[in-house]
Write a structure and sequence with these properties.
Structural class: mainly alpha
Mean pLDDT: 85
Order of helices and strands: HHHHHHHHHHHHH
Radius of gyration: 21 Å
Number of domains: 1
Number of helices: 13
Largest sheet: none
Low-confidence stretches: 1-6
Distance between the termini: 43 Å
Strand content: under 5%
Helix content: 55-70%
Shape: globular
């Protein structure tokens, strides 16, 4: 069950619905497939599915009207947006989690199981926090905030790696190739790129002792904020807000052609505004462009080599074409 006691009553309500859905639909299906040994994992998967459905509801009820109210640009390429929706459904409805479950999770079980046998245990970050601040009364809220900051710092450096390493950029460039950015664009990634990123995040979660329920809540919150950051919305959080939380304006600069993915010399890897949630990391490590001219956040998005004058590279129109071309770029190293 998701540990969201930071909102009184929500945890119980979520747990009741999760239990009902599991017993009514999921458990009979698991038994019918002869996979009764996976009941515990199926229960957790039911939680991920519910979180994904709630995220989609928030996106449709809040972010979609925001995009219609103050769009940065008119919606010209609906086909590209529909492909992004496919990526979103794959991730938010738990299909990508199944890939993780059958590939990475068993490896992590083996690694951390062997470490425990050798007497090596990860740290319990929330327990350490209580030692640092013994006066904290709402430990659920405090630990949630602490984990959120830790994961965001890890995400910042993952993002720097995606932009700084040729082979990784060969995969991550698919995310930047979207010329029509919307709230659906966050999950537009090569599956191998996501697998690398999520492996690092899952390893970190186990290493610092994040409870499974807290982990789901952190992932859900982060994903919703990323959907907002990618929204086709003319929205800034103001002078102070832009330094506290990543806004659509802040992140659109990151997606700007020749701005967010290149270094000082055109054609070299680099970029700016890598933070996922908190711009403080960009400020501290010198990669922020908060004071950029106002119209910079309204510039077209994409990768420079997509433009005809720079080669017109094809990143694919459909899901499978994009995945295949990403593998080709990976093998070619560019």
């Amino acid at each position: 069950m998701i540990d969201v006691n930071i909102i009184p009553g929500l945890s119980d309500a979520f747990g009741n619905v999760q239990q009902w859905l599991f017993e009514t639909l999921v458990q009979p299906a698991v038994y019918g497939l002869g996979m009764g040994n996976l009941l515990e994992d199926a229960y957790e998967a039911t939680g991920w599915l519910m979180v994904g459905l709630l995220q989609l509801l928030v996106m449709l009820c809040l972010l979609a009207p925001l995009q219609r109210w103050r769009p940065v640009e008119p919606l010209r390429d609906r086909i590209a947006v529909r492909v992004d929706m496919v990526y979103t459904f794959i991730h938010r409805l738990g299909l990508f989690r199944l890939l993780m479950f059958f590939s990475i999770e068993p490896l992590l079980d083996e690694v951390f199981g062997s470490a425990r046998v050798q007497g090596i245990d990860g740290i319990q970050l929330d327990a350490l926090m209580q030692g640092w601040w013994p006066g904290v009364t709402d430990t659920a809220l405090a630990s949630f905030a602490l984990y959120l900051v830790v994961f965001d710092l890890v995400d910042y450096w993952i993002h720097r790696g995606q932009h700084g390493l040729n082979r990784w950029w060969a995969l991550h460039s698919l995310h930047h190739s979207q010329r029509q950015m919307t709230m659906w664009s966050d999950n537009r990634n090569h599956l191998l790129d996501d697998l690398l990123r999520d492996t690092i995040i899952a390893f970190t979660a186990r290493a610092i002792g994040v409870p499974p329920g807290q982990f789901i809540a952190i992932v859900a919150f982060t994903q919703l904020m990323e959907s907002l950051a990618h929204a086709n919305a003319r929205l800034s959080f103001g002078w102070l807000g832009e330094r506290l939380l990543v806004s659509p304006r802040f992140h659109r600069i990151h997606h700007g052609i020749g701005v967010g993915h290149e270094g000082p010399t055109p054609g070299t890897l680099g970029g700016c505004n890598f933070a996922v949630l908190f711009p403080v990391w960009d400020i501290v490590f010198g990669t922020a462009r908060i004071n950029a001219r106002p119209d910079l956040a309204m510039e077209p998005t994409g990768v420079r080599d997509q433009l005809p004058e720079f080669g017109g590279k094809d990143y694919g129109r459909g899901f499978w074409a994009q995945q295949w071309l990403g593998l080709k770029r990976l093998l070619q190293g560019s």
